[in-house]
């Protein structure tokens, strides 16, 4: 959610970390941001999020006319004592059943709190993807058999009308037994698992008027090369995930003036996915692998850039502050895959580093 900079909650940038026994109250007004979001700690977030310090944040429109089942699906995993990962939807780490009568509209709000992309499979019914990262899509059409690859930190809202047979949402990984089964009684069996192509937002829905495009004049342009190497970070040897050859705190500060129209390009030259997350702004995806987006306007706050992929995105610099722009694989961020978007004339009194209490990743 695009909140004022002072309410962003990043230790060392917009506040000091909330220490044991302390409290901090966030106050902001939500305007024109109905949609699916989530919140999490930004103090040692790579550990805090895995251990459950997060939650969904659902903003309903002022005159919400939806009368069906509206269900947040918070996907999460954690490392067990056996050194394997346990997946869950919310607190359910096996099959969860819900009785839903045929003809009922159903909206599932998929939220990926993990550090890796998740592929969801919705089986037993056609469906529409109606929103991405809190922004509605234009003229979504029905999909059948397609899987949904959701960026770490990202959200998809999907909607369907409950049929007379069972519908299941699965996290189809070898180790996962997690599923969400909807049916009109408690005895129904799960439908056959879909195994179709992966949903592509770049070609989905219909175009509509956009505030800017590839042909716009941009006040600032930034090219970000995402890479990998082996090296030392905080005194430990391991994989590093540099941006333009640097890791935090040596990554560049992206400086803008309020009102600037900004274009960013991402190129992933590494061997892992990088879900790039810009705080305080939504980015309009302009192109994917050199091809213009042809579907609905596709707004994101977290964009999964897979190995070998490239994207161009743009946004209006209309929310002054100092904002994190980082990989939402929080382990990558903890290894220095962080930079910041700074507005001219804005500074911060807070400090970050091992000499302070603030350890944002």
Automatic annotation (TrEMBL):
Keywords: Metal-binding, Oxidoreductase. One of its GO terms (molecular function) is copper ion binding. It comes from Ktedonosporobacter rubrisoli. Pfam families: Cu-oxidase, Cu-oxidase_2, Cu-oxidase_3. This is Multicopper oxidase family protein. The lineage of its organism: Bacteria, Bacillati, Chloroflexota, Ktedonobacteria, Ktedonobacterales. Gene3D superfamilies: Cupredoxins - blue copper proteins. Residues 7-63, 71-163, 238-340 form the Plastocyanin-like domain.
